[in-house]
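[audit] Reproducing an earlier prediction to check determinism. Same input, same settings, fresh worker. If the tokens differ from the archived copy the diff job will pick it up downstream; this log only records the rerun itself.
[audit] input (395 residues):
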Amino acid sequence: SLKRIESIRHLSDSSGQISAAELAEAKQLRATSHAAEIERADFIIVAVPTPITAARQPDLEPLKSASATVGEHLKPGATVIYESTVYPGTTEEVCVPILERCSGMRWREDFHVGYSPERINPGDREHRLTSITKVVAADDSQTLEEVAALYASVVKAGVYRASSIRVAEAAKVIENTQRDLNIAFVNELAIIFDKLGLDTVEVLRAAGTKWNFLPFRPGLVGGHCIGVDPYYLTHKAELLGYHPEVILAGRRINDGMGQHIARKTVQQMIHAGRNIKGARVSVLGLTFKEDCPDIRNSKVIDVIRELEEFGVEIFAHDPTADAEEVLHEYGVRLRSWEDLPAADALILAVAHRQFLGLTASAYMQKIVRSGCLIDVKSVFDPAPFRKEGVRVWRL
């Protein structure tokens, strides 16, 4: 976007991934909205979003639009590298025909394509571009070596040459699908353990003493990757006549967690003797994950919408999110910590560092006596809250 380009020009990265000093050191970096600049490039990297529609089908319009723009300004001999997460076959079946049509050139004769899936983890300052192995693929062996050399020049962790573009596309989409399924499993366990009266955290800690137990934790699954990418794989599978069951079952569980958390909040307030209609509920965290300003496909909104159906008044706070963006996208007004009232229930939805740095007494000032604390991320010690008469529930 123009706003993003302007912020980069002013050495500001709104995602928080790159510091001003790092941007200042990038002397060869030019942020521009002029598509004609593409004509100068030997390599063009396309890394646009690949969202889903309201019907949970792949929305390739951003990718198609970007391919058309690149094609209109593609010079002979250039290589177009796609990084967007897609289903296997998208680069060659969808993008290449657009590049050919808009450029008037022939694939593999006048230009080449490669694929190297983006693997950056938003909000993670340890695992960054340079420290994550880069999977690369291309349409022939020479182009593969050129693409590998390009990424190897900046990625210290090295590159992995996939045997084909379709293999690289599939590798990326299953990375996120696997994580989605693992979280869905522990989310379902959390629901079962709740009915059994067991603390999920205690069960997972005990199970985690075995060396091969995977340390996943229950929670909301949103964002533009994990909660979206599985639908790309299932879409392709269904086109081939196969109906995937496990993947879609995992998606159903994860998509339903917002409603589950909201209803448990209402249940806890009822047990605490609070009136539901008109009750005040403070929600901490609106972004899709901790320490990241991205609000795209945040499932915290599902919690808020479900609570509003019960006539609850919501007070939201997130020091990481852009208040204007939240208001525009979701119609939710963010408040400062100081403006939060003493609520009937306080929900810690996203475990930002700022929230983890606050004391139990600071939180208790924001909860009425005999109120409720809903610890979605299971980060608090319940003891000091319960000692003060606060009812604690955690996922």
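[audit] rerun output stored. Observation attached for the diff report: The domain at 175-253 is CATH 1.10.1040.10 (N-(1-d-carboxylethyl)-l-norvaline Dehydrogenase; domain 2).
[audit] end
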